[in-house]
Amino acid sequence: MLNDTTNNYLKACETWRQKILGMHIPELLDKLPELQCEEDYLTVKLFAKKFGMDLKTGVIVNLDDFSPAEIISQLNIYTFLWFSTPQARCTDLWVPFRELSGASPFAMAFEKNVLEPLAMTFSGQTEALSQAYETLGGTRLSHSDAGGLVKSFDSIPLKFLFWDGDDEFPAQANILYDRNATDFIHVESTVSLAMEGIERLAAVAGVAIKGPLFKM
Fold this sequence. Notes:
InterPro entries: DUF3786 (IPR024264). This protein is of the alpha+beta class.
């Protein structure tokens, strides 16, 4: 049986599905060149995984096997399509989450439910984390003990920074965004993008997620 939280997210997916069906697809393709129309689907990559939204129904599937996309992926894709603005452009100026437009009310929760689990999950796993960046099509960064640049959507790259712990200090982590990330997606969805990124990194690294990572 689904819990109330999961039911609420499923209802949110259904609401977004209906809203997206009313959007003009040529306008979406024009403002987001990474989108493609392939047969009956509008396709997009999210953390190197290809998804398709059925142009008739709005349902989002994994294109490798046409199974339903996970809730977090659906919500990230729907909100990306809905909130991206025609003038959105990356600046290559990187800021922590708390400095994004509208993010400050969520900063403490982001620290506890995103950054702390990221640090705990990869404590003692610096090489596994570095390899995971590359598996997801990203690149290693010299910043920190295991830094990496990974694209969530092509328009929204993320910089993961990780410092391993020792006998005196626990592992620490941070995630940086392009300063204009919220021109592409709602600020709350920048959180779920980070969450999905951690889940994908852990999966390809073969490590279990530790700590209170928020779940959908």
